[in-house]
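Sample 3 of the quickstart, ligand nicotinamide-adenine-dinucleotide:
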Amino acid sequence: MANNLLKGKRGIIFGALNEQSIAWKVAERAHEEGATFVLTNAPIAMRMGEINKLAEKTGSQIIPADATNVEELEKLVAESMEILGGKLDFVLHSIGMSVNVRKGKHYTDENYDWTMKGFDVSALSFHKVLQTTKKLDAMNEWGSILALTYIAAQRVFPDYNDMADNKSYLESIARSFGYHYGEAKKVRVNTISQSPTMTTAGSGVKGFNEFINFAESMSPLGNASALACADYCISMFSDLTRYVTMQNLFHDGGFSNTGVTQAVIEKFSD
Ligand SMILES: NC(=O)c1ccc[n+]([C@@H]2O[C@H](COP(=O)([O-])OP(=O)(O)OC[C@H]3O[C@@H](n4cnc5c(N)ncnc54)[C@H](O)[C@@H]3O)[C@@H](O)[C@H]2O)c1
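Result:
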């Protein structure tokens, strides 16, 4: 299903760890739609070397960068423009990690050093990416920058832990930076709030299988897959969505606006 929607466009894709990663699917789809891009991830995340397969498949170069490190981001953005031969049209921030979640620390008993680390990786890094591209004047007009988020930013999902707070902050950055970036450079900034999806980051959340099944039964269209999320990202990077900015866009099969479904009601019938 390729329509050349991103023909001639250049970008940077953060966060492809393995074939399950949402960023992996976005890279595959962006390639199909005619884009050229640089792949990046944290140096330690590349140890498995999986990303090399994706680079080969999409004809992309890889530049390692820790998204919490501004110097590494500056190098990444400057080198990407050189490699791709001009300013960028799109950036995907597909990054998330909570040390409290990883180590099974309860939300009411946080280790604040871990909280700060997770906040830096999952939320502040988005501001760092935006600020770096803006300072280096790296985006073309009407360029599109996206981050991925989850509805725990608006509603309580107890086991999502401090990632809920990180996602709230992330979505707020999209609004605030989107204002300034829009006025100054006509660059759009949005977050996509995706259904629970079986990936490395997703499956780190306690009870994730139950979580996915619950969301499935609470969504009129069912859960959106990683590939469907990639399609939505492509449309947001394309010129067909030029006036969408500063939004949190739900991509969840209708979950966010559903109070209850027939399938859930039936579970409670005598
Ligand atoms: N899987 C889900 O259920 C789900 C639902 C909604 C939103 N999301 C969001 O989608 C995004 C992508 O996650 P995913 O589910 O594809 O999982 P994933 O584990 O494949 O991707 C997370 C990525 O973050 C990268 N990362 C971690 N620390 C980093 C750092 N310091 N610098 C640069 N990169 C770093 C990891 O290496 C990995 O590639 C995340 O923001 C996640 O919160 C996921």
